[in-house]
């Protein structure tokens, strides 16, 4: 009789343990990861949230759209967003410099969006005249990137700066006497009718109906000089150690997701899977 009681107790204990394990598994599988993004990046993450890749990784992704980069990084630092995907490595570097108490870390790479020089008045770089008025982003990251593109093309020369950023005040040589018109990066496309040309990020170009491969007269290429312009997934140092957050990078580079990005954005987002250490070289 005592044996039966012990046996019955053992069965009940086993069932409780099994139930606990199952509950824990369900909770782990249903744990939500909040990804902050904006524009076309938010569109990509909404697709990922519904993808088979996310389901297989047991990720429940909720996309939170915040259309101001600084506010989005702050939300990520403060914890209302678990990770974000919208910015380049150089943009994050600039943000971390200005916000030493809320620094974020890079989880992995996503793609390079080639920045381009666009014109509604000229069809080639050779046609661009001296003294041309060129619209350029006024934020440090995009202005640096724009000027470096012009330097790579041999149109200007920049002074070397200690922190590797550059502004229109750092011109060492401007043989064509270009006049730079500084505006918010989101409005460069809107002023193309008023300038000879404008340096536009790919996201803004896409939203304005422009294709960097077909419509620009000059654009970035994926090489060593553009490594820091590769877009990334970022998180706070604390969140970057969470297993479910680490899975975001792996899910992003699944074949079905890559096909979706290529087809949806006309191959203008050049997918890059590089070690984070490469961005620091």
TrEMBL record:
It comes from the Bacteria. InterPro entries: Lipoprotein_NlpA. Its main location: membrane. GO terms for cellular component: membrane. It is a lipid-anchor. The keyword Iron-sulfur does not apply. Pfam families: Lipoprotein_9. This is NLPA lipoprotein. It comes from Bombilactobacillus mellis.
């Amino acid at each position: 009789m005592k044996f039966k009681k012990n046996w019955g107790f053992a069965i009940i204990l086993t069932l409780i343990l099994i139930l606990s394990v199952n509950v824990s598994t369900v909770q782990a599988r249903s744990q939500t990861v909040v990804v902050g993004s904006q524009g076309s990046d938010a569109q990509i993450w909404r697709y990922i949230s519904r993808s088979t890749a996310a389901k297989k990784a047991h990720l429940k992704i909720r996309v939170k759209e915040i259309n101001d980069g600084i506010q989005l990084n702050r939300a990520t630092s403060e914890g209302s967003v678990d990770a974000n995907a919208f910015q380049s490595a150089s943009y994050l570097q600039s943000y971390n410099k200005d916000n030493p108490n809320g620094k974020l870390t890079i989880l992995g790479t996503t793609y390079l969006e080639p920045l381009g020089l666009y014109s509604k008045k000229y069809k080639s770089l050779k046609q661009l005249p001296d003294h041309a008025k060129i619209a350029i982003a006024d934020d440090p990251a995009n202005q640096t990137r724009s000027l470096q593109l012009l330097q790579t093309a041999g149109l200007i020369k920049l002074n070397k700066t200690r922190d590797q950023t550059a502004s229109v005040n750092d011109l060492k040589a401007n043989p064509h006497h270009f006049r730079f018109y500084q505006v918010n990066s989101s409005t460069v496309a809107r002023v193309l009718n008023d300038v000879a040309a404008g340096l536009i990020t790919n996201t803004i170009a896409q939203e304005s109906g422009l294709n960097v491969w077909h419509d620009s007269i000059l654009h970035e290429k994926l090489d060593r000089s553009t490594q820091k312009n590769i877009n990334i997934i970022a998180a706070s140092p604390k969140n970057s150690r969470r297993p479910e957050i680490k899975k975001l990078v792996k899910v992003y580079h699944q074949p079905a997701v890559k096909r979706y990005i290529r087809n949806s954005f006309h191959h203008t987002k050049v997918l890059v899977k590089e070690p984070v250490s490469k961005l620091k070289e």
